[in-house]
Amino acid sequence: MKFKLKKPKIAQSDWVSFILTLVATLFGVLMAIWLTNSEVRKKEKEDTIKLLQTSKRILNNTFEYSENLNEALSSFEKDTINYTKESIVNLKTNNPIPYPDLLEGIVVNELVSRNISEYSHGSIYNCLINLRKLSSYETVEYYLKTLEEMMAILNLEIELLNGRINSQELEPKLAVIREELDTKYSSENVLRVSSDK
User: Fold this and answer.
1) Which of 70, 48, 44 is nearest to 124 (CA)?
2) CB under 8 Å to 55, separation ≥6 — which residues?
3) What are the residues whose beta carbons fall under 8 Å from the beta carbon of 69, sequence distance 6 or more?
4) b/e per residue 20-34 (b: at least 16 CB within 10 A)
5) Residue 143 CB: number of other CB atoms within 10 A?
6) Which whole-number Å values give the CA distances from 185 to 9, 119, 141, in the listed order?
7) 110: buried, middle or exposed (CB in 10 Å: 19+, 13-18, 0-12)?
8) pLDDT tens digits, the chain, 197 residues: what are they?
């Protein structure tokens, strides 16, 4: 006994309906994936901006503390009646110029590393290396200058992430800020060291 299978007869309109349903479903799935990825990217960018703003606060606090500490010690050095060289050395030893350790943790964060520009990332690391080497009273002017430069880099990177500037504007704007800082901190004690090029 042979079984013969009959081909089901499906009307052309049913085939068209089936194909259109399949295409619409595929389109809907792809659209949902795209929207989800778009929201994830937007959330990552917002979180990166929050971390960069926290970094700015850390740098600002470090800058203010270092500047006030340096001004206080400078006035103590001028007041030879109340402060001896030994007491000033003790003050410097007990109150070192602070290094923004928390900033390193933020910069190495995968979210930040993935979302900031390569130029800013390199500039921040360059500044961190300089800060590590220069956190002493002998180089405090350069240290303060480097802190201000890092704050400027973070400000520009936040503008870039917010879409206020584009990546081509970042480097020239930072060059202008660096020139202003060179003028502000012009001194025989301050030398411009760069490894950006």
Assistant:
1) 48
2) 103, 106, 107, 154
3) 95, 97
4) eeeeeeeeeeeeeee
5) 26
6) 87, 24, 7
7) exposed
8) 566 766 767 777 888 888 888 888 888 888 888 878 888 889 999 999 999 999 999 999 999 999 999 999 889 888 888 888 898 888 889 989 999 999 999 988 999 999 999 999 999 999 999 999 988 888 899 999 999 999 999 999 999 999 999 999 999 999 999 999 999 987 654 455 555 54
Strands (E) across 60-139 are located at none
DSSP, collapsed to helix, strand or coil, labels residue 145 as: helix
Evaluate whether 49 touches 158 at the Cβ level (below 8 Å).
yes
Distance from the Cα of residue 175 to its chain's centroid: 17
Cα–Cα dist 30/24, whole Å: 10
pTM of the model: 0.77
User: What was the pLDDT predicted at 32?
Assistant: 84
Confirm if 105 and 124 have CB atoms less than 8 A apart.
no
Quote the CA–CA distance of 180 and 197 in Å, as a whole number. Answer: 19
- Domain positions in the chain are 44-184
